[in-house]
Amino acid sequence: MADRLLRTDPAADDAPSPKIDTTVAHIARVYDYWLGGKDHFAVDRAVGEKVLEIHPETVLSVRANRAFLARAVRYLAATEGVRQFLDIGTGLPSANNTHEVAQAAAPAARVVYVDNDPIVLAHARALLTSSREGATAYLDADIKDTAAILAGAADVLDFSQPVAVMLVAVLHMLRDEEDPGGIVTRLMSAVPPGSFLVVSHLASDVQTETMAEMRRRLNESMTQQFTMRTRAEVTRFFDGLRLVDPGVVLTHEWRQDGAEESATPGVLWAGVAEKP
């Protein structure tokens, strides 16, 4: 597993860069385009614009999702005392990455990022920074391979102590037949009481016609296939856990920091829950 785990290490700069297919759109790069980043190609911009044609607020929604991630991490580190984070489906580095938010509140926080996309791996070293007291690592693994994720993350995280399992904007990339609920169950079964689950997920029951057309346009253009779900379906991912107030709400409604965040529309359900 060590060869799939990258840490802050100058020698890692000698590692070969993964091959990236620039002829097919990739959600990490499309998301980067919506966020105003620079790590995307013409094919990604084309797909991004297809979505913006029918839902111009997508840019605001992805920002609301990113703001939710930061608020959730800050809450867990500063209020709940969580010092370990397993961030699955990392995406490209952006502002307010998990380790930056967590270590700002708790310098000793330890973070493992997990993704299996070549574009993310190519930029992983940007995530491999850390406070002196904490640790940050990147694991090349597929969300469906929970055994590999848990084994690799154990090199950095202590699974006898609480862990925040973060599945932010990733479960909607799993079809029902891929058993996303089972994946969540296996991950949460591996962490002790006092651990937390953080989820955000594209909604099928908000702006229903627009979201259905968004799903169609994304799925016809990308190898990744999206399955949007209702609030009730997203809530089921938290079965057996104790939801933190205000429960499962739209991203911009979860413990917003001010009027600006409250007014930024989101089309993803989001929630945080504790393992009792």
Give the percentage of residues in beta strands. 15-25%
CATH architecture: 3-Layer(aba) Sandwich
Oligomeric state of the chains in view? single chain
What is the H-and-E element order?
EHHHEHEHEHEHEHHEEHE
User: So what's the overall shape?
Assistant: globular
- Cα distance, first to last residue? 30 Å
Query: What proportion of the residues is helical, as a percent range?
Result: 25-40%
Write down the Rg: 18 Å
The overall average pLDDT, rounded, is 89
The CATH superfamily bears the name Vaccinia Virus protein VP39
Question: What is the highest CATH level, the class?
Answer: Alpha Beta
**How many extended strands?**
9
Question: How does the SSE layout of this entry go?
Answer:
Elements: E1 5-7, H1 27-34, H2 42-54, H3 58-78, E2 84-88, H4 98-105, E3 110-115, H5 118-122, E4 135-140, H6 146-153, E5 164-168, H7 180-189, E6 196-202, H8 208-221, H9 231-235, E7 242-243, E8 249-250, H10 259-263, E9 268-274
Parallel strand pairs: 2-3, 2-5, 3-4, 5-6
Antiparallel strand pairs: 1-4, 6-9, 7-9, 8-9
Helix pairs in contact: 1-2, 2-8, 3-4
